[in-house]
Structures are given as structure tokens and as C-alpha cells.
Design goal:
alpha/beta; 7-stranded mixed beta sheet; binds S-adenosylmethionine; 242 residues; Rossmann fold
């Protein structure tokens, strides 16, 4: 029998707020103040917009950032409606202490989309929103001191193959001179990514130290682990392409 899951058939263009990022990654002011941060893929998250307003240096990238603000807003609204509809049947797979209920969750998604869209035209002109298609990023080695990647790798593990995951992880590590934090490590069914062992071995032999630890935030039941990557001392990661 097929396991219950959020039954969506595409990577959704939705996003979270600054406050949600803070909770997911356990970020605080001291982390952010000195960092040059990449959010990848950022989707309709308002992390970059809100962090920028606080004076932090954040670049967001996503495969869809070549589209107009209007097209992104319309896609974002459509994908929020899809999540709202699909969540109806599987709400028991989630913990509701933070969002309270489906309305609370959807209003956070709308808040993020609205803030993202308001910031996008000026931010893109200023180079804060960059169109980029993983597993290749248009940034030099070590450009960022902190890279955040949430709700893409591992979560859509049944749509994106393991080689894609390996290449993306190496690329995220290549553009970072510090930590790369990834959340969650589970799929849409809540099960841990089935090839984690193979991915960790791959990273190890390719010059990347990877650690897994408990994340400070849990919404999808049991999807409460995160990964931290760091380039091994002096290791150089060659740019790879598909
Ligand atoms: C669910 S959103 C995550 C947004 C944000 N990180 C968050 O947690 O709120 C996933 C994003 O991945 C983007 N995406 C899909 N394939 C991609 C690729 N190959 N390269 C870059 N972005 C991609 C989608 O456009 C979508 O915006």
C-alpha cells in the first residue's frame, strides 16, 4: 500500500518567512550580522527581503527568477492553493503547534509571497535575486560564508535523482567558505531520504565534511533532521556540470 504523503507532482514555488528560516536553522543576529548569505533555492521565501531590511547581506537564487514579478506572483498563488487543497487530506502528518491550523499556515505562505514579490523588482536589479539552475550556480568558489537550502533537496527525493542530489550538494559546498545548512532530510512522505549513506560517502571522498543533527524546528512529523556541510580544510571542489 502506498504511504500517505502530501500528494503533489511538482516542486512548488512557495516560500517561508524570515521568522520561519530563523526557527528552522536556529539562526540568530550574531550569525547573520557578519555573514554573506546565499538562500538556494529560495522560491517565494521572504527571507532575503526581510533580512535585507535588517541590514544583512543575503542573495536569493531560484530557477524561476528570470520570470516577471507578475508571473511569479501568479505561480506562487497557484502553488499555495495546491498545497492548501492537498494538505486537507493529510493534516495529521504534521505538527500544528507553530501554525495552529491550515489557515495559519496558508497565511504565512501568503505573507512570504507578498513580501518576496514587493522586494523582487528592486532586489533583482540590485543583484539580490539571481536566476540560477542547480546543480550549477553562477558564483565563484567560496563567495558566501553561509548557505541555506531548505525544502528542495531530499524533500523532493522521489522526483530528483541521487546524482542530481550529489551534484547540488557539492555545488552548494563549492560556493561556500563556511557552513551549508540543509533541511529537511525527509521526503514528502516523512521518511528519511533513502540514499543518505551513499550521499555522505560521496561527499566525504569529494572533500566535503558532512554532519547530521537534530533541527530546532519540526512541522512535518519526524522530519526534524538537518545536514551541515563544510569544505574540508584546503580542499578544492571542482565545478561540475550535468
Ligand atoms: C519549495 S520551494 C523552497 C523555497 C524556500 N527555500 C523555502 O523553504 O521556503 C523550492 C524551489 O526550488 C526551485 N527549483 C526547482 N528546481 C530548481 C533547480 N534545478 N535550481 C534552482 N531552483 C530550483 C523551485 O522553483 C522552487 O521555488
Amino acid at each position: 500500500m502506498k504511504k500517505e504523503r502530501l500528494d503533489i507532482d511538482r516542486v512548488a514555488f512557495i516560500g517561508r518567512t524570515y521568522e520561519e528560516y530563523e526557527k528552522i536553522f536556529g539562526l540568530d543576529y550574531r550569525h547573520l550580522r557578519k555573514a554573506r548569505i546565499l538562500d538556494c533555492p529560495a522560491g517565494a521565501a521572504s527571507f532575503a527581503a526581510e533580512a535585507g531590511r535588517r541590514g544583512f547581506d543575503v542573495v536569493a537564487c531560484d530557477i524561476l527568477y528570470g520570470l516577471s514579478r507578475r508571473a511569479l506572483l501568479s505561480k506562487g498563488e497557484k502553488d499555495i492553493a495546491l498545497i492548501n487543497e492537498k494538505l486537507g487530506g493529510v493534516a495529521h502528518l504534521y505538527l500544528w503547534d507553530y501554525y495552529r491550523d491550515r489557515d495559519g499556515l496558508i497565511s504565512k505562505r501568503r505573507e512570504a509571497l507578498g513580501r518576496f514579490a514587493a522586494d523582487f523588482p528592486r532586489g533583482r536589479a540590485a543583484g539580490r535575486y539571481v536566476a540560477a539552475s542547480l546543480p550549477r550556480l553562477p558564483f565563484a568558489d567560496g563567495t558566501f560564508s553561509l548557505v541555506l537550502s531548505c525544502h528542495f533537496l531530499f524533500l523532493y527525493g522521489d522526483m530528483l535523482d541521487i546524482d542530481f542530489h550529489k551534484e547540488c550538494l557539492l555545488e552548494l559546498a563549492r560556493v561556500s567558505s563556511g557552513d551549508v545548512l540543509i533541511f529537511p532530510l525527509s521526503g514528502l512522505d516523512g521518511d528519511p531520504y533513502p540514499h543518505l549513506g551513499e550521499v555522505l560517502r560521496f561527499l566525504d571522498v569529494n572533500g566535503v565534511e558532512a554532519g547530521i543533527r537534530r533541527a530546532p524546528f519540526e512541522f512535518q512529523r519526524d522530519a526534524n533532521m538537518m545536514m551541515r556541510l563544510r569544505r574540508k580544510w584546503s580542499s578544492e571542489i571542482k565545478r561540475r556540470g550535468r
